[in-house]
Amino acid sequence: MSGADLTRGGSDINSRRNDAVRWVFFACAALSILTTFAIALVLIEGSIDFFGDVSIVEFFTTTEWSPIIQPRSYGILPLIWGTLIITVGSALVAIPVGTATAIYLSEYASSRVRSIVKPTLEILAGIPTIVYGFFALSFITPRLQGVFPQTGTFNAAAGAIVVGVMIIPMVSSLSEDAMSAVPDSLREAAYGLGATEYEVSTQVVVPASISGVLASYVLAISRAIGETMAVTLAAGMSPNITFNPLEPIQTMTAYMVQVGISDVSVGSIGYQSLFAVGMTLFVLTLSMNVFSMWVRSRYREEYQ
């Protein structure tokens, strides 16, 4: 009789403990979601105030951006253009290097080499981005000036290169994880048909892991779009639509830094522009993340 009571008591305690743990975990998940909604709500509220004074057509179609300096103008296209230059340039650096690194680590490197190289690469992801910015100013830009003397102290090329270097670990690490998940039976079948190691890597492993590889590209590009300090230090703060990568530009994140460190008064049109730019950036990065999820689900391969 006493044994039955003890069992029931222990079961009740375990049940209450499980319920408490479940609610703690739910609270953590809810806090993350509520924080995201709070950020979106703040951006929407500030953007509504901004667009009460500025035409949304002018905001997205004109090419002059100067909300805090007279004469004022509110065309965000130079900031979007600067962000695209950095994004495309960094992708041109990171995607080939990161993919080749992932193939090497997955298919060619020994276990000992992989255990050393992969953590070393991932250390790059932990370096503060402002350090990358100083690296661009003190190393990349002088090298560019040695080849192209007309290169300015602040230029888009240095910003794109340093952001590309910064996101290489993301491309290589996530792509290597996807390639390593490909079953060995596919590799063995290809080798059995006489394929070389290069053919197995490029014609079997990469296509079989393409969903994870593409998702790593999209996530890395999203990271490049949102990069702030490295771009601000390397590329400058000159909103400028130019095809010359050796000229200074300004990205959306760099403008937000500029407003943050300026003496713009709260409630002014310059201060409200911060929310409109932030909302545009939020929508861009959210779209990229949703696209990444679609790519992963659309091209996912399942193996038994």
UniProtKB/TrEMBL annotation:
Q: Where in the cell is it found?
A: Cell membrane; Membrane
Report how it sits in the membrane. Answer: Multi-pass membrane protein
| Keyword Transmembrane helix among UniProt keywords | yes
Which top-rank group of organisms is this from? Archaea
Which key words tag this protein in UniProt? Cell membrane, Membrane, Phosphate transport, Transmembrane, Transmembrane helix, Transport
Boundaries of every ABC transmembrane type-1 domain copy: 80-292
Its primary localisation, in coarse terms, equals membrane
Q: Which GO terms describe its cellular component?
A: plasma membrane
A biological process from GO: phosphate ion transport
Q: Where are the transmembrane segments?
A: 20-44, 79-103, 123-140, 152-171, 274-295
Q: Does the entry feature the keyword Repressor, yes or no?
A: no
Q: Pfam families under this entry?
A: BPD_transp_1
* Family as reported in the entry's similarity comment: Belongs to the binding-protein-dependent transport system permease family. CysTW subfamily.
Sum up the protein's function in the record's words.
Answer: Part of the binding-protein-dependent transport system for phosphate; probably responsible for the translocation of the substrate across the membrane.
Q: What is this protein called?
A: Phosphate transport system permease protein
Q: What is the lineage of its organism?
A: Archaea, Methanobacteriati, Methanobacteriota, Stenosarchaea group, Halobacteria
